[in-house]
Amino acid sequence: MKSKKKRAFNPQALLESAGVARTVTEFRRKESIFSQGDPAKSVLYIQTGGVKLSVVNEVGREAVVAVLGPGDFFGEGCLAGQSVRMGTATAITPTTALVIEKNEMIRVLHEQHAFSDRFISYMLARNIRVEEDLIDQLFNSSEKRLARALLLLARYGKQDQPQRLLPNVSQKTLAEMIGTTRSRVNFFMNKFRKLGFIQYNGKLQINSSLLSVVLHD
User: Does some domain include residue 25?
Assistant: First the structure.
C-alpha cells in the first residue's frame, strides 16, 4: 500500500477554510508595519513580498532578527501574552499581508482543531529555525552564515519549489542578519558570483550549488 504523502502547510487555504475574519493590507517598500513598543493586537500573514524583523537596543543599535517571505506568519507574540511589540516589522519590498486581530485568531485556534494543529506545528518549526540561527551565529564563519541566509531566503528545503529569484535585500540588511560588516558581505557576494553560486539579473538568483559553502568543512 502506498504511503500518503504529507501535505505542505498551506496557511492561506486553512485561513479561508476556517472562516477567519481578516483584512488585506498593502505596504510600500521600507514602510513600517509595526514598531517596537507598539500595542500587540494582531497576527499577520504574508501573501506577497518580504518583511524584515528587527530590534533596537538602548543605545540605538539595530539587529535584524529575521527576514520573512510569502507564507510566513509574524506578530504571533500577542497570542502568548505580549502586550507590546518586541521588535519592528518593515516591508523590504512591496508587500501584501493578511491582518488577523488577536481575539479572532484565538477564537479560531480554539474552535478549528485542524487549523490549530497545523499552526502550532508551523510555529514549532519556526522556533527550531531560531535555535539553528543562534548555533549558526556562534559556530560558523561569516561566509557560511551568509550562504545559509541566502539559501533560507530562497526557501531551499521547503516542500514547495524554491524561490530562486530574491527581491532586492540590501547588503546592509544581510550584514545585520549574520552579524558582520557590509564590506565583508560585499566581498563574499562577489566571490559567490564569480564561482557561479549566485547571479544578478535585476533580481538576485540563488543556485543550489551555494549549498556547497554551507556543507564544506
Answer: yes
pLDDT at site 5: 47
Domain co-membership, 28 together with 78: yes
DSSP-assigned letter for residue 87 = S
Q: Cα–Cα distance between 28 and 38 in angstroms, integer? A: 19
Helix (H, G, I), strand (E, B) or coil at 59: coil
- The pTM (predicted TM-score) of the whole model is 0.73
User: Which residues are registered as beta bridge partners of 198?
Assistant: 206
89: β partners: 34, 53
Q: Give pLDDT tens digits for 97-106.
A: 999 999 999 9
Counting as low any pLDDT under 50, the low residues of the chain are: 1-6, 157, 159-160, 162
Q: Please classify residue 83 by burial: count the beta carbons closer than 10 Å to its beta carbon, then call 0-12 exposed, 13-18 middle and 19+ buried.
A: exposed
SS3 call for 95: strand
Four-residue CA torsion sign, 178, 184, 188, 193: positive
8 phi and psi, to 5 degrees?
Answer: -70, 150
Among residues 111, 132, 153, which one ends one of the domains? Answer: 132
